[in-house]
Amino acid sequence: MMLKMSPQGCSVILVLLLTKSVFCSKLGLEIIPAKGEIFLGEGKDFLCKSSVEATIKWMISDDEEIEDEEGRYKQKDIDESVKSLYVTASRFEPDRVIQCHAESESGETSTAQIKLRIIQKPTFVKDVATRKEFTADSMVKLPCDVVGIPHPQVTWYRYGMAITPLPGHLSASADGTLTIEKIQLSDAGMYYCMAYIRERNEMAYKNVSVIVNAAPIVRFNYTNPNITSKSNTSFTCFVTGHPEPQITWKKGDEKVPLDGQKYVLSANGLELSITELDKSDAGEYTCHAVNSYGEHNTTLFLQVIDVPQGVGAGVVTGIILLVLLVTLLAVDLTCYRTRRRGFLMYLATHVLGQSAPRVKLEDTDLKKETMAKSHVVNISGIDA
Predict the structure, then answer these.
(1) Is the peptide bond before 216 cis (omega within 30 degrees of 0)?
(2) Neighbouring-strand partners of residue 263
(3) Which of helix, strand or coil describes residue 48?
(4) Are the CB atoms for 142 and 190 separated by under 8 Å?
(5) Are 141 and 179 a contacting pair, CB within 8 Å?
(6) What is the helix (H) or strand (E) element at residue 294, kind and residue range?
(7) Distance separating the N- and C-terminal Cα atoms of the chain
(8) Burial of 142 (0-12, 13-18, 19+ CB in 10 A)
(9) Buried (b) or exposed (e) across 214-231, using 16+ Cβ within 10 A?
(10) CB-CB contact of 218 with 237 (8 Å)
(11) Which candidate, 129, 130, 116, places its Cα nearest to that of 85?
């Protein structure tokens, strides 16, 4: 048999069931966000959210309730199940635990907690100059004053590569200061300091341009050149120093007469060219360099050698051909006189039309002919 209930009765039962459901729900707490890191000088809002209506308190440890404090804590009730806590990290404080404590209307309690930690990005505490000047051979210290929580690792770089300590010249201290002992012109350039917090992958850079001032140093690749006359030559003066030195060339005690033809100077003043050398160009040439830190010069001695008056290649060739021709004619003349053969005989018979003379045999030859029977002698192709 089914029981019939009025609409009013159903409504009462539904309310009772909902009320029972509310009172039977378990109290749960959640702190949002769950990570309690706050950057120094900044603030962060935390929410304590209850699963049911409850009285919520923010606590430090188990027995100390947090009170509103200017520049540190500020609380606010959002609704019956949510309460916020705004924490300002105005100064550094050690890590600490804060709790959210909730008590429901039924007397049930629950606690959640997070660890507050104040952190700081790598920050340069001093305005590191982006350009520093030093004098050569002095000791140089390049500080990298940086702070961070936790303290950053400091590394110095040059030309994109980490600087390797060099005993007696380059070293880095624990506070990040780079020391250069007896700095030289070769140490000039762009340096940068990198501060790095590995656990958060945070980094900061600071560039420093290092200028090294030094007196000039002058040198030649060779100091006693020997050049032949009528030729051209040039001398390069290699100069180091900063600020950029001014260059002057001298021949003996006088300045080189730079006329743009005989004596020509390069645009940077480091190369001197001399054309059509003669004996008057021989002597001492001095390259002198000066800047605000000092001066220096180097001298070379030019020797001009006369070109030997030798026989030219054409003359030598002519002499060789002449000797060869005379030799051939002598051989041919000998053949003509003794054997009636050769080129001269050919000219006499075929060009001049002369008859070929008979060969006059010596007595010994006649005797040989008689004994060996007579025979015909052919000279230059003519029977005799």
Answers:
(1) no
(2) 274
(3) strand
(4) no
(5) yes
(6) strand 294-305
(7) 175
(8) buried
(9) bbbebebeeeeeebeeee
(10) yes
(11) 116
Q: What percent of the residues of the chain are helix, what percent strand, and what percent coil, each to the nearest 5?
A: 20, 45, 35
Mean pLDDT, rounded, of the chain = 83
d(CA 98, CA 59): 6
Q: Helices in the chain by DSSP H: which ranges?
A: 7-24, 313-339, 343-346, 363-371
Is residue 1's pLDDT more than 50? no
**What CA–CA distances, in Å, run from 189 to 131, 173, 292?**
10, 21, 20
Mean pLDDT confidence for 206-232: 92
The Cα 48–Cα 100 span in angstroms is 6
Q: Taking the alpha carbons of 333, 338, 341, 345 in that order, is the dihedral positive or negative?
A: positive
Dihedral over Cα of 118, 124, 126, 127: its sign? negative
pTM: 0.62
273 closest CA partner among 239, 231, 223: 231
pLDDT band per the 50, 70, 90 thresholds, residue 175: confident
User: Given a cut of 60, is residue 176 above it in pLDDT?
Assistant: yes
Per-residue b or e along 300-335, where b marks 16 or more CB atoms closer than 10 Å to that residue's CB = bebebeeeeeeeeeeeeeeeeeeeeeeeeeeebeeb
Residues 6+ apart with CB under 8 A from 338: none
Q: DSSP E strands: which ranges in 125-188?
A: 131-135, 140-142, 146-149, 153-158, 161-162, 170-172, 178-180
Q: Which two tokens stand for residue 133?
A: 């000047």
Distance of CA 255 to the CA centre of its chain: 39
Please classify residue 273 by burial: count the beta carbons closer than 10 Å to its beta carbon, then call 0-12 exposed, 13-18 middle and 19+ buried: middle
pLDDT of residue 272 exceeding 80:
yes
List C-alpha distances in Å: 251 to 197, 280, 282, 288: 63, 11, 9, 11
Residues near 271 by beta carbon (within 8 Å), at least 6 away in sequence: 234, 235, 236, 237, 265
